[in-house]
Design a protein that fits this description.
single chain, Spore Coat Polysaccharide Biosynthesis Protein SpsA, Chain A, alpha/beta, six-stranded mixed sheet, globular, 3 domains, Rossmann fold, 14 strands
Length: about 400
């Protein structure tokens, strides 16, 4: 309800709302229906089956008449002047192809709008994005020119995760001019949906498909910054694919290789991306080899620090995948640690999440830090060293 109210409460008036109810199981459909009855600018699409986020967004795009498109997730809100600022930016910059804006948070990506205060050519835009540490590229952090979406037939693909990465990449590659708003006009709600699909085989397949489809956008004729961007996006997706294969059954791992056409992988990318090279050269066995490499690495780390209590620092997909690997090696995990309150009072595989205080004054502790961001790793390293200077620390990267 807060999401809809934040959009209806805009100081700018010339806009339409397309609300898609994907066969919700709570009272959302009733609330949406009531809004649709009394708000003329609101169009309601009610899916007869649960079609997923990609189909739902595509259904909305099909009937969108606005010149610019902004996506808003159901847990999120817009500042009251968000659309007004987007409109003024569009007019003042002669209808650019893309408007970048800030959102709640302290990361470089959350503040990315400030780097686009002036109209920027697309190659310069890619250079800026390539310098953003751990850029994700959520679809809701841009305003899109609807003319480009329709002329280039850019839609969300039938995958259950990382659909944003593919959509935004295909759109960016179709752009020529980009501008931005330095202000943070979009507010993220407390959504944790990504964690629920972490162990789903369909999520693993989606990661592989997105990586494969991204490589199809690569061309040897592209400018350097565009090539760098695509390679970075592929590596980002693969970093989320690898943890998912740790606890996947062998027969399922072998079967997922069929979702990419090995004859259609760019030769340059095959040489740059280990996953592609292994699948092209080894077939499905290449994915099994990757998993074995991870187990071997984890085993070597454990052998370096025998007879120690093992603590895994980093919740969710990465940390829990390391736990799976350790359990496969018959290593007892003392605790899981994460700084986020989302994980407190929960457990994984019977192992409780604790605060960092569990390390204090503990002897014989080995801490495995699994956070993939360099800045976060260094911060966690500092925290662990301060609370227990005698702890042994290793970093696990995917």
């Amino acid at each position: 309800m807060k999401c809809i109210q934040s959009i209806l409460g805009q100081t700018f008036n010339d806009y339409e709302i397309i609300l898609v109810d994907d066969l919700s199981i709570d009272s959302s459909n009733v609330i949406a229906g009531k809004y649709a009855e009394k708000e003329a600018k609101l169009k309601l699409i009610q899916n007869t089956n649960n079609l997923g986020v990609s189909y739902s967004r595509n259904n909305g795009l099909k009937i969108a008449n606005g010149k610019f498109i902004v996506f808003v997730d159901s847990d999120d809100t817009l500042n009251t002047d968000a659309l007004s600022k987007i409109y003024k930016t569009v007019i003042n910059n002669n209808h650019p192809d893309l408007v970048v804006f800030g959102f709640g948070g302290s990361s470089d990506e959350a503040n990315m709008g400030k780097y686009f205060n002036e109209l920027t050519d697309i190659n310069s835009a890619f250079k800026i994005i390539n310098e953003i540490q751990y850029y994700i590229g959520y679809c809701w952090r841009f305003a899109y020119n609807n003319k480009i979406i329709k002329e280039c037939d850019i839609l969300f693909r039938d995958v259950i995760i990382h659909e944003d990465a593919l959509f935004t990449s295909e759109y960016l590659l179709a752009c020529k001019k980009v501008t931005g708003i330095s202000d943070k006009i979009y507010n993220k709600g407390r959504s944790n949906s990504g964690l629920s699909s972490a162990r789903d085989i369909n999520a693993t397949i989606s990661c592989l498909r997105v990586a494969y489809l991204l490589q199809k956008t690569y061309s040897d004729n592209l400018d350097y910054e565009k090539k760098t961007y695509i390679i970075g996006r592929i590596k980002f997706i693969i970093s989320h694919f690898l943890p998912r294969i740790i606890n996947t059954a062998t027969d399922e791992l072998i079967s997922i290789a069929k979702y990419i056409d090995v004859t259609n992988i760019n030769k340059h990318l095959k040489d740059r991306i280990t996953l592609f090279r292994l699948i092209v050269d080894w077939g499905p066995e290449g994915i099994l080899h990757l998993r074995k490499t991870f187990y071997d690495h984890l085993h070597q780390v454990i052998l370096k620090h025998p007879f120690r209590k093992v603590v895994v620092f980093c919740g969710g997909l990465f940390g829990e995948s390391v736990v799976d690997g350790l359990l496969q090696l018959d290593v007892e995990v003392h605790a899981l640690i994460d700084n986020s309150p989302l994980y407190l009072n929960s457990e994984y595989r019977g192992i409780s999440y604790k605060t960092i205080r569990v390390l204090k004054d503990k002897a014989n502790i080995l801490v495995l830090i699994c956070n993939q961001r360099d800045a976060h790793y260094l911060e966690i390293l500092k925290q662990v060293s301060e609370i227990n200077p005698k702890a042994r620390i290793e970093r696990i990267k995917f």
